[in-house]
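Q: Here's a chain of 217 amino acids. Please give me its 3D structure as tokens.
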Amino acid sequence: MKQIIIFLLVIIVWAIGYNTYKEYKRFTPPEYEYVRNKNIDLNYHDRSFLFNYYKSIEDLNGYVITQWSANGIDVRNSDSDDEEELAAISKYTDKLGAVKFYEDQLVKSKTLKDSGLTNANIRLLESEGISQAEFEKEKTQSKLITLFNNNISELRIGQKSVFVYELQKLLVKKGFDIPVDGLYKTITRDAVLSFEEKNGLFPDGKVDLLTFEALLK
């Protein structure tokens, strides 16, 4: 009799434990949480965008666990042809796409910052719809224009300066075989003259704004 009672108690304990486990499994799908990417820009210039990223993750995780607990559907791993499951999976895919949209932008922003850009730079890149390469080119050209404005006086043979050095680099990029030493010699002036002739500019060998802007293109 005692053995029977012990056996029944074991069965009861097992049943309670099994039901508890079933309830746990029902409300806790395996590794259901989508975890925030560690490589996002936590100081992104648009704080609402960052907030929406976190919100979309919560929405995604909430949907996964709701479908599991209420309908027994694991929307992440299902090969069923059931219409209800297919609809749930489709909605899950949309929610995951929203997470990835925010995440990709935030990861890109961090990568740009790691390369030296600021929030202001990134905001400009996004608003103007230009690539980083185009942005860097425009930034370089802006610096060169400033350099030009600071050296707008007529160049003289024998003059040596940073501006001449940058001018020679631009001429080399246009195909002229000249030394890049920062020294304004006859060979550099003749290259400027030749460039003006080839590009429909007044061929006087002088580096005016029109000539310089044409060299920057």
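Q: Can you summarize the key feature?
A: The helical segments are 2-27, 47-71, 83-114, 119-128, 132-150, 162-173, 186-198, 209-216.
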